[in-house]
Design brief:
six-stranded antiparallel sheet; 2 helices; globular; 216 residues; mainly beta
Length: 216
């Protein structure tokens, strides 16, 4: 996938052992409503504490009626970036790209180039999982020491946008508890990969972010 272009990137700092999240449900017109549109990025320690889990959710605000027809775009690469030495440049990447209703994962590996344009190293470790169909049990694959999932899920992000507007407008003192979930009943397309810590540095602090890149 040469001459790729970032449509959207979300940056967070991930401290191993803690849950971290970044969310963005309002995007530029070029990305909005496509699988280049990142809605959430999560990074957290797995149930197996020797592992880290990375989650990218894309194409948000899917209604139940439109979710079955939603598909990952084969021209969109989703890339998990991992900085292990705190210079804010990716030292390792895990790349996910769909083909024929299967999500393929490459990495983690050290990319030959960094930044806006890059390619997939087809000689890197390759793993795959069938894309789960809407309404059926999740298909999870285990390969090369990693666990993987790709498919539709309920949007896990909680935000009361109506109340937020009232707070900003000065007509409400704060959020209600529990409030009203703006995203209730909407879905996203999720890409999940669980990786041994030993594959990405073992221990300490990493910076991690996710990007979508569209083939040009």
């Amino acid at each position: 996938m040469k001459k790729s272009k970032i449509l959207l990137g979300t940056v967070i700092i991930a401290i191993i052992g803690l849950i971290t999240v970044a969310a963005d449900h309002i995007d530029a017109p070029a990305a909005q409503g496509t699988t280049a549109d990142i809605t959430d990025f999560y990074a957290f320690q797995g149930e197996d504490t020797n592992n880290l889990v990375f989650v990218a959710n894309v194409q948000g605000l899917l209604s139940p009626g439109s979710t079955a027809a939603a598909q990952f775009d084969e021209n969109v690469l989703v890339e998990f970036n991992i900085d292990t030495n705190n210079d804010n440049v990716e030292d390792l990447v895990i790349q996910a790209i769909p083909r024929d209703n299967t999500m393929y994962f490459f990495g983690p590996y050290a990319p030959g180039t960094t930044g806006l344009s890059n390619s997939i190293n087809e000689m890197a470790t390759k793993s795959s999982v069938p894309v789960t169909t809407y309404g059926v049990p999740a298909v999870v694959a285990t390969e090369n020491g990693m666990k993987m999932f790709a498919g539709p899920r309920d949007d896990p992000f909680f935000m009361d946008f109506a109340r937020y507007g009232q707070i900003i407008g000065g007509t409400a003192p704060g959020f209600n508890n529990p409030g009203s979930d703006t995203f209730k009943g909407t879905n996203v397309l999720s890409i999940v990969v669980e990786v041994p810590k030993s594959e990405i540095g073992g221990s300490g602090t990493i910076n991690t972010w996710v990007e979508t890149k569209v083939k040009q």
